[in-house]
């Protein structure tokens, strides 16, 4: 036995240790594979790698550039690797899809490439990879084996870091996160491990053999997991690449924005503040008023005044026989008022006498004028276009719509179906080989889907006829890839299956199990709608046949969260091109839509329930509604006509019923009213002003109210009048006209001025109504004081000659005409007026009306704004079910486009950074701000991240991508699917080539991007998604206007739509401020809902202007009595405020229709108030109570019979209408305005005048004394 010294032992130990270290190092450097061998048995077109356990081999020089391209930043020393050039090329092809979507975030893509580069080429493969299965390669020239399965040991830290850097990266064209396209499931369900497992799974169609990832941060089974350095998404790379944008990296955004808190309701002690304030105000008023009434009563008792003594003016009795009356005592204002009154009286007296003396001249002249004016009706144009009806050409929304249409084309027409099934049972899908059961809603049953596909196909095959041409859906549909792909855009869940029964029935499996079927494909596509390969064993595309993605929120309804498999409704949308400027093409679309509606009305399937709507449906149903309501309107007017014709007559005895009736005069009066309407329509038709349905439906009602009231006043005043001695008929009627015409002039001129001022409104419907109404009221007044007075004179002669009404040639024997007061006049004079003005009744009246006013003020701010589109439909309309289903099932609102006006500089980095959302873009860029808004969707109503053509263009043009190529010989674009060696990359793989294109480079390749159709090799082609989003100008040498599209959240009612418009404009305003360039939002509904942003201001403006006009005209025409104008204006204002109270109680919203009615209510209220006011003003009774009683007695009956009773019968008939608009906005509001007008004019105003009416005009008293001195009228006045 040899003895070894301690030194020798130490030397031996060192040698052994060194040998082991060297041996270990050698073992760590060997490969697992090298090169490619046999073709994969399970993934055709893919190859296995060759088994090789030797040392790494030097990479041929031809692969150096490819290595730098794929694995930048990796320094492998002498470039001895475990892969050859072919493997690098395969790796490049396999990573094209991740490259296109993840390269937006450099850190994310770097980490991902790290994972695959280490797997494919690392010289240290054997340290973290282990080949577990091999097969013999059947190539006799090579004695080698295929690697058919490996284990890849990956550090958990690396996997988590890679996932964290990539989890927020967006796919702009798809409005989803990129991992939804790359993880095999929704991004929300994706994590670090299942993402890597999916990428290495053979079932995804990319991996030729199974790669089994094993995650650990510590050595396992002698293997050291790959745990290379990673970058966070907030970090820049060593090659100078910047950090990821906020949009693609939530940590870069800082704290998530928090929406401002909702404004709490204004309350006092937990009760609505307005209610408390108005209650307190009412109680205070009541206490003050009761105190004043009691004080005045005590004062009168102490002065031994009569019950009807005046409150404030009791020391100034003005009786005609009083010696105190002297014109000298009258003030200058009183004298001016009396002279103005006398002038009006004289002018109308002379004019009335002339009309009675020259009836033929006046009537023929009136007929000629009416005929000339009415001839304009031949040029009449009726506006039914909702845009022209509700939106002013100068409005912001209208101008923005015109801008959008002119640059991108008009928004498409939409034909939509919402399909539910009568089958109630859900089906359960059990994924193979493992996975939790997935419930599928009844509409997603395969048999139901087949039936729906049959229906969809039948709709595609609908044939219409237009001008002897056949029209099919293909002739009019939206085809974004035409002419390369003429498939129509059909947004349907069936497009996940390429609209094919065969695709829907496709399965993969064996005799025991089904590995994949339509369930698998559906679950993948709803998470990756833009995918061209579902990566299941089916490998079917999700992209629609038309070349665009099918977003699940557009084609499914009734699901919860993002569980699209729970859908209870299917939505199918057929976008049709809108041809605003091409009548022939638009006619074809309209013709096809008629057949579409007819087909679906007649369609029957016991398993399917269909609610549908066409672009023309609403307009068609409104027209049908108008036609169906013609009979209701005719009956309404007929009742009013019959009442007017019969009520004008004053029948004294049965013997003279045919003589004393005034049917012919009543009919003539109605014809005059209708003639004034025809003249107004005709004159404005001459001027080219189009009519609206509101004008046609509302103005006859308004003018009839005003005109009939005047007719009753004239006729009933004549019937009550006694002809003076030596006074002829023409003098009597002239005198009567002199008495009543100033009152008629007051009301008519007030309304005319108020209506004409209403034309200042920016709302077309209100402006048009105001113009037509103002002119119609004015013409009606002129015809009544001319033509009607002549006809009244003729009728009076007929009656005095005992000739029959209508049959005027028949004459009865001579009989004495008796003049007695009518029933209504006697009722008002003897019963109603004295009762109303009793000492104890008047305070109750004031208390009740002030209570009504207080309540109305308290609820005015609670009136809803908007017009529920369901109200515009008839009760039996098929569209109502569609609206109901739309609200119940849909989860997404209309698309919204953020339009950047032309002039923005996209060629510079600064201009790009202010818009884009990727690396290097500003944190307050357009895309970033819209993205941030989508995070607060409940507040901003922006539902999704915007699609960004600019960001997708930057990804598309990258030199690492196969998307942007051109023919080296011609410079023409070379699609990624073309295999041709003459196709070269657009940009070089250099540091400058990897940067964003600017200047001429930007414009050189942009047209190519916008013409590129997406395909398997390049999913970023912009033709389908952005073909219309960019307006190229200057022969494609510059960028004009562009848009960035997203979607609103679901909008169900008017407040939702109004809020969406408001918030979108706020967001666009912020973007405009940060960009320094104009950006505006556009959605198809904005043009209709913009009016509601200012409806409150418009309403206040219209009503205040009308009230001011009424105040001014009333003050002037009542002889410059300022206080009279104030009292009339206060009463009308109370009526209007009470109208708002009724609107709140009756659920009537504030919109253009109700605003027109409010303006009309203002006009009709003048009729109820002005006649009473003038009668009070000219009364010469001694006290206010007596003057109010006289005014109410003489004018109350005419106003009550002329307006209230006339309208009441006609209004009640409107309640029978099938139209919800008629029932709500006409029946309810008309009834309210008549009842409120009558009660205020015939109850409140007389009581108000008895308390606070204007003092007696001494000059008017003196003039009346002088005018009637020595006549029978003097005795009657003094009685």
From TrEMBL:
Organism name: Esox lucius
Mode of membrane association: Multi-pass membrane protein
Cellular compartments annotated: Endomembrane system
Keyword Transmembrane helix on entry: yes
Keyword Transport appears in the UniProt entry: yes
GO cellular component, one term: endomembrane system
Record's keyword terms, sorted: Cholesterol metabolism, Disulfide bond, Glycoprotein, Lipid metabolism, Lipid transport, Membrane, Signal, Steroid metabolism, Sterol metabolism, Transmembrane, Transmembrane helix, Transport
Classification via Pfam families: NPC1_MLD, NPC1_N, Sterol-sensing
Residues covered by the SSD domain: 629-794
Entry protein name: SSD domain-containing protein
UniProt cross-references to SUPFAM superfamilies, sorted A to Z: Multidrug efflux transporter AcrB transmembrane domain (SSF82866)
Family from the record: Belongs to the patched family.
InterPro entries given in the database record: HMGCR/SNAP/NPC1-like_SSD, NPC1-like, NPC1_MLD, NPC1_N, SSD
Transmembrane segments: 276-299, 360-380, 630-651, 663-687, 693-715, 769-794, 840-859, 1100-1120, 1127-1146, 1191-1217, 1229-1252
UniProt cross-references to Gene3D superfamilies, sorted A to Z: Multidrug efflux transporter AcrB transmembrane domain (1.20.1640.10)
Signal peptide: 1-28
